[in-house]
Structure formats: structure tokens, C-alpha cells
Amino acid sequence: MSRRAVRAPATAHQCAFDWGDGGLVAGVDEAGRGPLAGPVVAAAVILDDAQPIDGVADSKALSAARRERLYDAIRARALCVGVGMASVEEIDRLNILQATLTAMQRAVAALRLRPSLVLVDGNRLPVLPVRAEAVVRGDATVDAIAAASIVAKVTRDRLMDEAHAAYPTYGFDRHRGYGTAQHLAAIRQYGPTPWHRRSFAPVAQALLAHGKVQA
Fold first, then answer.
1. In what order do the strands lie in the sheet with 80-86?
2. Nearest-CA neighbor of 135 among 13, 39, 2, 6?
3. How far is CA 15 from the centre of its chain?
4. Nearest residue to 26 (alpha-carbon basis) of 109, 140, 136, 100
5. pTM
6. Nearest Cα to 28, choosing from 1, 51, 46?
7. 158 in the Ramachandran plot: left (φ > 0), alpha (ψ -120 to 50) or beta?
8. Tens of pLDDT along 114-137?
């Protein structure tokens, strides 16, 4: 069963790709490259042509409530979903780009079905054992990538809710680890938590200010 659905970008002609042999196509996207805290999460999704999901779009264009509803629909109706992540420790050790590519590899490996083609949002590809193509703005043009963006975002937001439960003074439930003014002020006042990425400059500066040696 193929997955070839492509949605036209709002200000561009419909994209066309040579996607090969008609086999299964997985979309891959990530959430969490930019924040100062938390893991980076990737998802891989193979949609079912027989069970289309209305409203799938780039996760950044959706409300939190809409993402949650679509997440449940994707989990229920996709042929399969794989999730992978790279920890804060891996981000600090590898750098954020390599950690993101590692999370994508893990997401594809977690699929119970093997795709014949993997479409990855952006312009960088992880090393995979199957054919892969990078699709710039793929989360706005390819349904499977958009679905992966939703799964990755909801999964990561739920992890940041756990961070909030452990460290409520930092506001992780609101900024999700991004470098908002509130978050930066909390880091400066209280110092970094184990959820923070020590290789990121604002966190490293806070470690020095609090007299801690960067790991």
C-alpha cells in the first residue's frame, strides 16, 4: 500500500517527487531542536490510504488541543508509528544536529513495518538502511511528515509536563524548554536542572554563575 499524498503549499505549486516502487512510504519529523531543555524527539509514520485523517497539518500550525486529537487519530489509524529520542546527555555529547539524526534513526527502526522510502522534513538526512529523501517544508506538503510532526510534538510536550511536575518553578508546561524570558530568568535564579542541555550557551553561563563545573 503506497502513501503518495502531497498537499500543495499555500504559496507554491504542488510538489512532485519520484517516489519509486509503490511501496510503503514513511514520513519523519522531529520536535525539540531549539529548546534549552529536554530531549529531542523524532517520529516516523506510515499512513493508511484506506483510513485518511482529516486535518493533518504541520504541528506548529495547530492548537495544542487539535494536536492531541490528531495524535490519537494517527495512533489509531496509521499503519504504524515509530518514536525515537535522544537524551539531554546525548545532545551534550554529540551536538544537537547529530542527536536529532540519531533520534530519527531510532524512530524509523521502531516501525513494525519496513518502508521502501523515508521522507524526512528538512535538508539533512540520517543514515538509514532504506532509501530516504529530504523534503524542505515537508511538514506543510506531505501528510506522513505532518503526521510525524504531530506525534513528535505531542510526545515531547508530554515529557516536558513530566519536567514541570518535577521542577514547577521553571514553567516547563508553558515554554516547553524554549528560551523565553521567563525560562532564562528561572535558570539564572535557580540554576539548571538535570533536564537542561549544558552545552547550550545560556545553560552553560548559568552553571558558571552558580559555581558549578560544566559536565
1. 80-86, 40-46, 25-31, 117-121, 131-135
2. 6
3. 23
4. 109
5. 0.88
6. 46
7. alpha
8. 999 999 999 999 999 999 999 999
